Amino acid sequence: MYRILVALLAAAVLASCGGRVERTAPVVPAKLDPETNLLVYPRYGDSKPHPWKGRDPYSYPIHGIDVARYQGDIDWSRVKSAGINFAFIKATEGGDYIDPMFQDHWTGARRAGVRHGAYHFYYFCRPAHEQAAWFIRNVPRSSSDLPHVLDMEWNHQSRTCRLRPDGDTIRAEAEIFLDMLQAHYGRRPVVYTTVDFYAETGIGRLRNTEFWLRSVAGHPRTVYPGAFWTFWQYTGTGILPGVEGPVDLNVYHGSPESWLRWSGGGSAP
After folding, report:
1. Are 23 and 243 in contact, with CB atoms under 8 Å apart?
2. Is 269 among the domain residues?
3. C-alpha 176 chain-centroid distance
4. Which residues, 6+ apart, have CB-to-CB distance to 100 below 8 Å?
5. Is residue 249 part of a domain?
6. Total tally of structural domains belonging to the chain
7. Is residue 216 part of a domain?
8. Residues 230 and 190: beta-carbon distance below 8 Å
C-alpha cells in the first residue's frame, strides 16, 4: 500500500509539470459513510504538498473546492464521485465584473448534485452597498444552495485600486454587505480571508459571522490563534479528478452529521 501511495503521489506531481495538471484519481479514495450516505475522508494529490505537523486536513471528513474562471471547464460528475461535498464558485467582483465561467460552473455543480454557494471578491475602491447589489443582481436565490461568501483580502496585484482602508472601515463595510445578502438570501454569508488580512484588520471581530480561513502551511489553530472557523482552505495546488489544472481544496470543520445540518440551514458546530 505504501508503494502504491508513493507512486500515485509521484504521478500527480509529474502531471503538474509545464503548468498543466492532468485529471488523476485521489491518492486515497473517499469512503461511503453509511449513516449519512456521504463520501468522506478523501486524500487528493497536490503539486506542491505541505508536510503537515499535528492535525492535517485529511483528518476531516468533509472536503470541497472553490473555483473560478481559471479552472475552465469542469467535469462535475467526476468531482462529486471523487468525494467533493461542496463548492464555492466565484460569481462577482467589485460592482461591474462577473466571472465568465460562473454560470457554467453554477449549472454544472447543481446538475451533479454538488452543494454550492457563490463568492464575491471585494474591491476596496467601491462602496459595499453597490457591490452587494451587483452580487444580488447576478446570483440566483435558491433554498437548495449553501450560504454565499464575502471574500475579503488584500489584492496586491490590482492595477486600479491600491486603497487599504483601516480595520474599522473594513468591518463597517463588511457589515453592510453581509446584512444586504442576509436580507435577500435568508442566510448570513461566510467571510473568507487570509492570514495577513485577518491580523491587520481585525475582521475576526465581526459578530454573528462564520469564517473560512486560508492556511496552506499550518493548521488554523496555530496560524489564527483563538479563531473560530467553519471552513479551512488548506491548499491552492490540489489535483482533483474532473478539473484540469490546480484547484483550491478545503475542509469543513465538523462531522458528516453536522455538515448535513449546517448545509441544510442548521447551526454550525
Report:
1. yes
2. no
3. 22
4. 69
5. yes
6. 1
7. yes
8. yes
Burial zone of 261 (CB within 10 Å; 0-12 exposed, 13-18 middle, 19+ buried): middle
Tell me the CA end-to-end span of the chain in Å, nearest whole number.
Answer: 35
Predicted model pTM = 0.89
Find the domain containing 205 and state its range: 2-263
In whole angstroms, what separates CA 93 from the centre of its chain? 16
Q: Determine, yes or no, domain membership for 268.
A: no
Instruction: Of 137, 145, 138, 141, give the one whose Cα is nearest residue 91.
Output: 138
Say if CB 242 and CB 258 are below 8 A apart. Answer: no
Sign for the pseudo-dihedral over CA of 247, 181, 211, 260: negative
Active site residues: 66, 153
Specify whether the CB–CB gap between 120 and 150 falls below 8 A. yes
pLDDT 10s digits, 91-115: 999 999 999 999 999 999 999 999 9
